[in-house]
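Team,

Forwarding the record for the chain on the shared tracking sheet. I've put the sequence and predicted structure together so nobody has to dig through attachments.
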Amino acid sequence: MKKIILAIEGMTCSACSNGLEKYLNKQNGIINASVNLVMANATIDYDENILNQEKIEKYVKQAGFSSAGIFKEFKIEKKSKSEKIKFVIFSILAIILMYISMGQMIKLPTIPVFDPHQNPITYVSTIFVLTILFLIYGWDILKNGYKNLIHRVPNMDTLVSIGVISSFLYSLYGMYMVIKGNHEYAMDLYFESSAIIIYFIKLGRYLDGMSKDKTKEAIKKLVEITPNTATIEVNGVEKTVTLDEIKKGTIIIAKPGDKIAVDGEIIEGKTHLDESFITGESKPASKKEGEKVIAGSLNYDGFIKYKAEKIGKESTVSEIVRLVLEASNTKAPIAKLADKISGYFVPIVIIIAVLTLIIYLILGYDLSIAISTFVTILVVACPCSLGLATPLAIVVSEGVCASNGILVKKSEVLENASKINTIVFDKTGTLTYGKLRISKIYNYSQQEEEKVIQLAGSIECKSAHPIGKAFVEYMEEQKIEKLIVDEFEDVPGYGIIGKIQNRQIILGNNKIVEKYNIKNTHLEDEKELAQSGNSIIYVIENQEIIALIGVNDIVRKNAKEVIKQLNDKHIQTIMLTGDNKQTAEKIATELGISRVISNVLPAEKADMIKQLKQEKNYVMMCGDGINDSPALANSDIGVSVKSGTDIAMDSSDVILTKNDLNSILKLINISQKTVRNIKQNLFWAFFYNMLMIPIAIGVLKPIGISINPMFASLAMMFSSLTVILNALRLKKVCN
């Protein structure tokens, strides 16, 4: 299976995106297709043995749209100067047309040459010419409308096109009658309706475009983190180049005040870098030779040279942008419901409009009134507001999350996080910093303590677990040399094994002692270490415990406050750890966590998550993403706390790149506000249509309330803008 993201042109409303999505999902070889109206793209999973990009683009064309190729990068297009000038010109023409056609109705001074009573032919000809100009201006709407009708994916353009053309053709007949001498028809034309409907649709889309761009600003800021150029060194000479010219292995120079151009490794010099956009740490990070740098970091005070390692799409920032964009292309359950409804909406509106036209004619109304009502119903119906209700809110929220260091991989997380009633925390690296240090060593062997640490540390250096880092740091501080390790083996949930000089060394917790049936006479020492909050490492050689090492961790400074706030929200907090019971309970008591499940293996963690879900809990699992993968995968929402440089390999639903537990509270808060905003948007979209369609039909005419096609198009525009502006509020309320 392969995935492709195509840029799609020609989509104007939710009926477009829904129609294309349905069409693509019906095609042989396409496993899943998701179309995003706001981002104007389609994410397609397909069988590469059956399809390729060219064939998929043909399907897009068959559905009535066009592909602009691979969705390469995120851009916010500025309105072109010519587009603005064209819009200003047609705004002036709209005012002139309205004055000529409707001025006398509101007692404005009449221009004699355009008076429908004195010069009906001049009057009719003038508004006809002006209307033709507007039809040319809105040709894209008319073309798309009928094209999508032919392809059986009718959309908002279809409704507008049918209404505009119907109104225009009737008015053309009236114009013919005026030229023949029946001047009474001059007051019974709807040319201006056709023109002004197009104008208001264009106005709405112009404003929609600007508003939609605002929804993407947070994502745009991520793209703009990296500089456009960099200084490289070629044969000892400095040269300024664009990022596209940088290759892997290129030596790049960063002076004070420069931004790091690509991910890499320092080969010369030392400095302090601001990495707050990734780590959330406001204090500049000290960097020296051999350490990694992240693209977008700001170089404060040093001169460094670094070697490019990750360029283009491989960089940390590009990976973050990719995740955010892919998340916005997934659909929350509430969005799928809205899409399903809007998919039936356009055909139902067309049926209602046609039935109303027929009923009006049967009841004896004039053809002009029947057609005006028919057009009004088509134009006033607004599938746009219904279809935009969810994706706009999701895109805004995705951007807000990303700017807060919360990478959400699926948009359903933004809906489901508000339902969480149980949060399960791993201990090491999640509730604690994972910056472990060796605090106590019990040496039961005849060897020197340094030799025991050398044996244990050399094997621990091979491990990815935070405990391994504690040994590395200790050995560096004590200047203890590493030994060569053979036959290294990681035993998940138990420990690690390795051979040094043909001596097998086993390291692990008390479970590894039980696993290998080793006699343990050091339980009192273990208990003492555990009561002091230590993680326990047994060192075993030749079926004998030769040492017991206590490794201490530091509890995250804000963990206690986060747990308190979660408890205040009546969210159950649980610690689930492979560490011993005494250590786990000590830290849990300190943090205010009431329930502790300790001494569990990674597979057992997953079973505990399943059990909690069976108890009708909606479970979020928060871990470091190393030993917690099974539990993260089995939870309703898996959250990993980790460095931003690790995001590409992560399998959880959410990544907290700022290593801050407050982000969990922010995620829940953003989710609650997003769901509330979506419900508000859907309410206003449904309320608008439930109110305006009956008014357009004429249900309220007996009490003097009615609208014409021009006001219908204006009302439709305001309906979409209401939803857009409400979604934009999320940027303020979520930050």
